[in-house]
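Case study B.
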Amino acid sequence: MENTSLAHHLILAGLLFVLGLTGVLMRRNLLVVYMCLELMLAAATLALVAFSRFNRTMDGAVLVFFVITVAAAEVAVGLALIVALFRKRGTVQSDALTTLRD
Amino acid sequence: MIPFLADIDPVFKVLAPRPADWLSILPEIAVAGLSLVCLLQAMFLPKALRSLIPITARVGLVLVAIMALTNGPWVQPTDVASFAGLLRQNLPTDGVRMVFLLSALLTSFLAEGFLRERDAAVADYHHVLLVVTAAFMLLVQSNHFVTFFLSLETAAVGLYVLVGYLRRSEASLEAGVKYLVAGGLSSALLLMGIVLVYGALGAVPGVTDSLNFTQIGKTLAAQSVTHTISPLTLTGIALILGGVAFKLGAFPFHTWIPDVYQGAPTPTTAFLGTASKAAGAFTLVLLATGPFAPIAVKLAPLLAVTAVLTLLAGNLGALATTDLKRTLSLSGVSHAGFILAAVTAALVLPGVTAFGYDVEQVIVIYFLAYVIGTFLAAQALVSLPAVEDHRRPQLALRGLLRRSPLLASSLGFGIGSLAGVPPSVGFIAKLLVLTLLVSAKLWWILGAALIGVAISIHYYFSILREAVVRPTDADEELAPLEIPFGTRFLIGALTAASIIGGLFVLFGR
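Model:
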């Protein structure tokens, strides 16, 4: 902790966030897209903990627990939907999602 | 509340909820309790009595609505914070609650028959629906980013379930997954925004809780005087507003709407289009006139451009589609443009009114009109199975007037209310927004809104032409439709509400 500053944490969080965002926009496999979404949430959590530590307020650290809970609920519902879709279609590639169109 | 904690730490004496705090959210607690009652009934009632579940939910919702309309400790006449500043009732609370309660009630009416026909569980649907409703009702009262994020996410996760509810339908699952990815992305952006605002403002001396809306507002006001708002804060605010714009379906975050609305079960589509959109709109008002009010000068041009683009994107998009549900979903985008226009008017000219209504009341009226119109139209759609047939949806309405004059008139009144044709409350709502724009002298947005209305008349009435005028010879398209008594009553009540509501808004005060 002595050798790291707030900027170090924020740069790491920013990198993770951009990595996740790029993955969501570029990847075609729904499971990978979903992992990238979770990566974005993890990046936000990391920044939250860093701010909480360096600003010396506990609110951010407490919010982290709520974010983890929310992410878990989202994963439960999300994976259920993706599995149901896989059973129906036999693929999780987003290119194959073409039922809905004009 | 918890005495032994108060002994350990004196802070708890100040922060612990008072009895008055719990009373102020009694309607929300009641709706959440009702959702559990639905689940318990599904567990313990014998099969023959299962049809009681949706009835319990509806009776409960009506009782909560009556409670929310009567004056009690849950309606604060002035701006009162509860739960140590986590919640605050500063919008016209009773009206906002009514939008969500009415939307949930009408969704329940649509859902019962729809789900039975498709052999899907009715009780679970009601459970999730009520949880989402309670979450929306809390969301619009939040005064702290923790309550804000949590209630928004509770609603979002519940909506993922409702969109992908028909497990055997490819369209429903595909819509669910698309909504999940788009919704997850917006939540992540929103959370990052909250974190940046928390971090940047938390470093300012004297700020004890940089997630609290009141403190954020005060800090931003002080910083905007000295021009020291950091780029980090502005990035955070932009990300938060982006997340909210996504929920509202504003340009350029509206691209997910047609797919998700088309694939979702029609009752869910109606709920998404009304309650979820209303939540986005009220949240935008809450943020733009609350914590972010000090930078309204910066926000107003941004919102104005978004409003114009949303109006055009929604209306032109609706003009180009042939699928019924897609057309209605894109017309919903243009309605979001109207809401954005009203919010812009509030930012440009604080305290602007139309016919004695302030902006928050105008938005409540707009959404009540929109709820009535959407559900009248949706009632006709759920009665026609061919609407879900994605290969030839445009044929679904053929001969509707011959098959069931009642449904045709329901569709007609619904579409008329959405388009803003004079006797309906939809016309009054549009008139109020246009008056706001004139008062605030926002001529560009007024022009875009009027062009939008003109375009919308064309696509709305081409839907009606399909149902009423288009000749048909096929036997299946002429078979009379059986309409249950409950549906007849509902259509009559909504039509009456559409006309009386409009007169009441104009002459009621």
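Strands of chain B lie at 80-82, 87-89, 353-354, 357-358. The remaining cases will be described in the next quarterly update.
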